[in-house]
Amino acid sequence: MKTALVTGANRGIGLELTAQLLEAGYNVHATYRSSKGGLDGFENSEISTHKMDVRNENEISNVIQSIESLDLLINNAGVADGRWQSISEIDMEHALEVLNINAVSPVLVTQQALPKLTSGSKVVMMSSLMGSISDCRSGRSYAYRASKTALNMFSMAMKNELDDAGISLMIMHPGWVETDMGGPNAPLSTKESVNGIMQRIEEQNMSLSGRYVEFDGSPIEW
Ligand SMILES: NC(=O)c1ccc[n+]([C@@H]2O[C@H](COP(=O)([O-])OP(=O)(O)OC[C@H]3O[C@@H](n4cnc5c(N)ncnc54)[C@H](OP(=O)(O)O)[C@@H]3O)[C@@H](O)[C@H]2O)c1
């Protein structure tokens, strides 16, 4: 049986990923920051839930120590920014927090998980189209965009070492999805988005390592 770890699994895309991974026969370590949220609803014996703030090295270490080996790591947890409308509104403390959670913390989790990842394992970084510099036409979303661009570069900078270990890396845009973050006008349900993400995970292999891709398989320009 394959084993997966999903961060930010208590709601939104992470919760649906947990549901579909369980359906696909994975043993799932589902982590939540403070409240178990939707994770309370699962009765499947293949789920283990863990309290883990992705900024907290001790909490991450405790979770990783409880896992024998990992076939799939999904760095899904993330936050939006203050949706500031102008440069003068940017709150620097908040901007640093967004960079920490969205860009630095996935690196911390991957660093800690590395000893449990083996040849054939897969790492998914939940990025966004908003991290694409060439797609940044409307501007704004300053810290969120910058955090996802930084996540993309952190990921690509790790790629060679992961390649050497036989671990493939995927940088994912889940689409615009109806969650607390995506809002009610989003065209995609979590189910539709995660159906696609699951197919991308299934087909992922070493020759696809380092791709920046949408849930439906379309490649994204950096
Ligand atoms: N929805 C979209 O349209 C969209 C588009 C592009 C990319 N994405 C990306 O997809 C991922 C999931 O987004 P979503 O739409 O499902 O968002 P969401 O509904 O707002 O859920 C975000 C999840 O991240 C968790 N989280 C936030 N900060 C955390 C921390 N410090 N430690 C641990 N967990 C933390 C939240 O936990 P709490 O419940 O404790 O806050 C929650 O479980 C994010 O990385 C997001 O940037 C989403």
Describe the structure.
This protein has helices at residues 12-23, 57-65, 92-113, 142-164, 190-203, and strands at 3-6, 27-32, 47-51, 70-75, 117-126, 168-173, 211-214. It has a single domain, classed as Rossmann fold (3-Layer(aba) Sandwich), CATH 3.40.50.720. Helix 1 (12-23) crosses helix 5 and helix 2 (57-65) packs parallel to helix 3 (92-113). Helices cover 36% and strands 18% of the residues. The chain is of the alpha/beta class and 222 residues long. 39% of the residues are buried. The model has no long low-confidence stretch (mean pLDDT 97). Bound molecules: NADP nicotinamide-adenine-dinucleotide phosphate (NAP).
Strand order of the largest sheet: 3-2-1-4-5-6-7
Query: How many beta-strand elements?
Result: 7
Shape: globular
Topology as a string of helices (H) and strands (E)? EHEEHEHEHEHE
- Average pLDDT, all residues: 97
Pairing-aware structural class of the strands and helices?
alpha/beta
Q: Using the CA coordinates, give the radius of gyration.
A: 16 Å
**Uncertain runs:** none
Helix content: 25-40%
Largest sheet: 7 strands, parallel
CATH class: Alpha Beta
At the fold tier of CATH, the topology name is Rossmann fold
Number of domains: 1
Strand content: 15-25%
| Bound chemical compounds | NADP nicotinamide-adenine-dinucleotide phosphate
Assigned CATH superfamily: NAD(P)-binding Rossmann-like Domain
CATH-defined architecture = 3-Layer(aba) Sandwich
Count of DSSP helices? 5
The N- to C-terminal Cα distance equals 35 Å
